[in-house]
Design goal:
Length: 164
């Protein structure tokens, strides 16, 4: 699968979920309404840059802190197609995959706002502007989970296929 989009850069390390989606908004359950609070504690102006196909390019240990499913929900609802980072907190990484948002770990990756990004999930090649990075190819079951829209939808598809 090929994913293309424009980069939004969050180069800081150790960005935690508490600033990506602050606690006072955790009572919101609709991802479309969550969009209005994404990045609230980090830099709310980043929301204005999320136009359509966006690839977040982030630093080390991104998504540390609380296990907030609101973050990947709000990202997907805001048009984020993929998060590419130097490293991720384990629970954030799994939450993203389980909720249908692709994440790729790529040591040394960097980008500037607006740079074009092209990701080949089969080969693991990531092009950002004129730079090329190599991620591990995405395992098929993870890609299937993301393409299904998340783990629950993936399970429903599989159980429906088995029943039919």
């Amino acid at each position: 699968m090929i994913i293309e989009g424009a980069a939004i850069a969050i180069p800081e390390d150790n960005v935690d979920t508490d600033v990506l989606y602050p606690g006072p908004f955790l009572n919101i359950e609709d991802p479309e309404r969550m969009r209005a609070h994404l990045f609230e504690g980090l830099d709310p102006s980043l929301r204005d840059r999320l136009v359509g196909d966006t690839v977040l390019v982030v630093g080390e240990n991104f998504g540390s802190g609380s296990s907030r499913e609101h973050v990947p929900h709000a990202m997907r609802a805001s048009g984020v197609r993929c998060v590419v980072g130097r490293s991720f907190a384990r629970i954030f990484y799994r939450n993203c995959i389980n909720l249908g948002l692709l994440v790729l770990q790529v040591p040394g990756v960097e980008a500037a706002h607006g740079e074009p990004v092209r990701i080949d999930t089969e080969s693991g090649e990531i092009r950002i502007a004129e730079r090329t990075y190599q991620a591990r190819p995405v395992p098929q079951f993870m890609l299937d989970t993301v393409l299904a829209g998340g783990l629950v939808q993936w399970g429903r598809q599989r159980s429906g296929a088995a029943a039919g």
